[in-house]
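ARCHIVE CARD
CATEGORY: sequence design from structure
SOURCE FIELD: tokenized fold
FIELD CONTENT:
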């Protein structure tokens, strides 16, 4: 998971330098979620480490998406308030704040995996490659919305 640590460092710098967060406390909470991933890097067993990495990535991404939606005055209906709803709203915004391909990849690689492992006992990311793909999708989305 060497690539994950590099991507994580870049993502933290991206969040720190972003002006997309209206509330500094929200920005700090996203940074802390990302730092939790580094703290989990040596946890055993592997299933536990992978689970925590994906959950912290998803939480940091969803919080960031909500902050960008709010700071741009985008209204998301209560039943759509979640990662998929925020991504769809940002992609539908004029001008779009995320591309349709990034929205699709993020839903496929982050949201669905998060839902599968968070809502089913015994559900874990199967390997480090899947965790890396999740981190890559989250980073691509954050890079677009936090610019």
């Amino acid at each position: 998971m060497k690539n994950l640590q590099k991507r994580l460092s870049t993502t933290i710098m991206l969040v720190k330098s972003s002006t997309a967060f209206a509330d500094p406390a929200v920005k700090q909470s996203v940074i802390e979620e990302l730092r939790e991933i580094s703290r989990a890097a040596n946890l055993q067993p592997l299933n536990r480490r992978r689970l925590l990495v994906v959950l912290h990535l998803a939480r940091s991404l969803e919080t960031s998406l909500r902050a960008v939606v709010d700071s741009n005055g985008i209204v998301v209906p209560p039943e759509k308030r979640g990662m998929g709803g925020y991504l769809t709203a940002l992609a539908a915004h004029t001008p779009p704040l995320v591309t349709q391909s990034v929205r699709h990849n993020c839903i496929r690689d982050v949201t669905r995996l998060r839902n599968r492992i968070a809502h089913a006992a015994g559900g874990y990311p199967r390997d480090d490659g899947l965790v890396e793909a999740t981190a890559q999708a989250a980073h691509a989305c954050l890079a677009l919305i936090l610019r």
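CARD ANNOTATION: DSSP finds six helices and no strands in the chain. Residues 46-71 form the longest helix (26 residues).
SHELF: design records, drawer C
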